[in-house]
Amino acid sequence: MTFVYTVNRQGRTVSVTAGGEMDVAAGGPFGSMLCRLAESEPTERIEVDLGALRFMDSTGVAALNRAYRTTGRHGCVLVVIRATGVVLRVLELTGALTHLSPRAEAGTDQPSA
């Protein structure tokens, strides 16, 4: 399984684009990288674009949840955008989308990806 990601920083906003398959081998390191983004430099927002991700297991969900908690402690907002297919379904089934979606950030009760 192949997993790739890119990171682009513009000021205090970071865009992370993930693609491929996020499994047990990739989830932990990816989550740690997201945490470091908020810890290393002043960051207000991290957007994680999952539009090119074809697969994600519970390890990926755990990594995103851990990063969400860690970034929040640093005053940073982490949101997931463009999740589709099986990745969107996994986020919905686990309830993670309720706090990781941009609508959760805005305070609305309808999650979207």
UniProtKB/TrEMBL annotation:
GO molecular function, one term: anti-sigma factor antagonist activity
UniProt superkingdom: Bacteria
All copies of domain STAS, residue ranges: 20-95
Alphabetized Pfam families for the sequence: STAS_2 (PF13466)
InterPro entries per UniProt: Anti-sigma_ant, MlaB-like_STAS, STAS_dom, STAS_dom_sf
Protein family (similarity comment): Belongs to the anti-sigma-factor antagonist family.
Name recorded for this polypeptide: Anti-sigma factor antagonist
Biological source species: Planosporangium mesophilum
